[in-house]
Design a protein that fits this description.
Elements: E1 8-11, H1 17-28, E2 32-37, H2 40-50, E3 54-58, H3 64-68, H4 70-73, E4 83-86, H5 102-130, E5 133-138, H6 151-170, E6 176-183, H7 191-196, H8 199-204, H9 214-226, E7 235-238
Helix pairs in contact: 1-9, 5-6
Bound molecules: NADPH dihydro-nicotinamide-adenine-dinucleotide phosphate and 2-hydroxyethylsulfonic acid.
Length: 253
């Protein structure tokens, strides 16, 4: 198969964790991938590892102008995106709502909500015009199950849930699929390091557990994308076996 005839995926946040694993897996599946993120050197390392099937494309998803320019700024042969993986996202802090840094809240909103809204709005018209495409979003169990310190992070992932369901409503009758992938505890990425800014605390999150891995997420995305065209996986939630919802909290003081 020539490069030009391979379907195109665009993965946001391809510089680490899930995004890197998803990029590698989609390439194995026969896609060429526009790998995006802010850390340019990592994108180039991924392109060196994977060859010409990766187009390294530095992108801050919170930079609205850069995201809106995508349909015309991407090289001509890479503009018809078949699969958009809206993976870039982050949690910052675990403080109670009244103790958090408001700038951290703003960053989560701009990235986890603003980023996915902008990339979707930029690339969806092309998909509609071609009547072909798949939007994959990285939600989270945090979007459905609250826990102390999740506050704006959890709310931003609840947005993903409603956004995907509403996109499905708008897209009814078109050959464009929409999926919310919602994992629970997952190690092997930089998620907890970014959230806690402390390597020891980040490691402690996974102590004595067997968490999900980025490869588990990538294999799930690969299965979803490979489902027959008549089948849309709306929402898929997974947790490691060592994790479960733990009931409602009661104050007994
Ligand atoms: P990582 O921290 O390992 O990766 C996050 C990625 O997002 C990086 O590639 C980072 O790239 C990118 N990113 C962050 N901010 C921006 C930005 N402004 N513009 C572009 N890219 C950005 O985390 P994970 O791989 O674990 O997480 C991926 C997604 O999965 C996130 O949306 C997260 O909320 C979600 N998730 C994670 C879970 C977990 O337990 N790990 C569980 C459930 C959901 P760069 O810094 O180079 O820009
Ligand atoms: C990441 C999972 O439980 O840390 O979205 O919020 S959790």
């Amino acid at each position: 198969m020539t490069l030009d005839s391979m379907p195109v995926a665009l993965v946001t946040g391809a510089t680490a964790g899930f995004g890197t694993a998803i990029t590698r897996k989609l390439i194995k599946d026969g896609y060429r991938v526009i790998a995006t993120g802010r850390r340019e050197e990592r994108l180039h390392a991924l392109a060196k590892e994977q060859g010409e099937a990766v187009l390294p494309w530095p992108l801050d998803v919170a930079d609205n102008a850069a995201v809106r320019a995508l349909p015309t700024s991407l090289p001509a042969g890479w503009r018809n995106v078949d699969v958009l993986v809206n993976n870039a996202g982050l949690a910052l802090g675990l403080q109670k709502a009244w103790e958090t840094n408001i700038d951290d809240w703003e960053t989560m909103i701009a990235t986890n909500i603003g980023g996915i809204v902008e990339t979707t709005r930029a690339l969806l018209p092309g998909m509609v015009q071609r009547n072909r495409g798949h939007l994959i979003f990285l939600g989270s169990t945090a979007g459905r199950y609250p826990y102390p310190g999740s506050n704006v992070y959890g709310a931003s992932k609840a947005f993903v849930d409603q956004f995907t369901q509403n996109l499905r409503s708008d897209l009814l009758g078109k050959s464009i699929r929409v999926t919310n992938v919602a994992p629970g505890l997952c190690g092997g990425s930089e998620f907890s390091l970014v959230r806690l800014k402390d390597g020891n605390k980040a490691e402690a999150v996974y102590e004595n557990t067997s968490p999900l891995t980025p490869e588990d997420i990538a294999n799930t995305v690969s299965w979803i994308v490979g489902c027959p065209p008549h089948m849309n996986v709306n929402y898929i939630e997974m947790m490691p076996t060592c994790q479960a919802a733990a009931g409602l909290a009661v104050d007994r003081t």
